[in-house]
Design brief:
The chain is an all-beta fold. It contains no helices and 11 strands. The strands form 2 sheets. Strands 2, 4, 5, 6, 9, 10 and 11 form a 7-stranded mixed beta sheet that branches. Strands 1-3-8-7 form a 4-stranded antiparallel beta sheet, with no helix packed on it. It starts with a strand and ends with a strand.
Length: about 120
């Protein structure tokens, strides 16, 4: 079965950096879009960034200039480099992938990012 597994979440001080990784297993196809969402306690899940198979990227305004999303299409992996972290970035970060071939969406289990002031 398809599984997305995130890693890299941690507790860091404001201004620090983290690199999140998401590895997909149980698939032989290429995801059309992969991305990262985040959800803080009591708040709605929101898109942080996504990237198409061709490398086109989208970012939430709140992270532009600080975060960079990238992917390895051959391995169906996606990364999120997070720099200049702020306390408001604190959330559980979820990997997401969409396949247009199968019309399916997949989610990871989430990884906690906590930024202290």
């Amino acid at each position: 079965q398809v599984q997305l597994v995130e890693s890299g979440g941690d507790l860091v001080q404001a201004g620090g950096s983290l690199r999140l990784s998401c590895a997909a297993s149980g698939i032989i196809f290429r995801f059309n879009v992969m991305g990262w969402y985040r959800q803080a306690p009591g708040k709605q899940r929101e898109l942080v960034a996504d990237i198409s198979g061709g490398g086109r990227t989208n970012y939430a305004d709140s992270v532009k200039g600080r975060f960079t999303i990238s992917r390895d299409n051959a391995e169906n992996t996606v990364y999120l480099q997070m720099n200049s972290l702020k306390p408001e970035d604190t959330a559980v970060y979820y990997c997401h992938a969409h396949s247009m071939v199968y019309g399916a969406d997949y989610w990871g289990q989430g990884t906690q990012v906590t930024v202290s002031s």
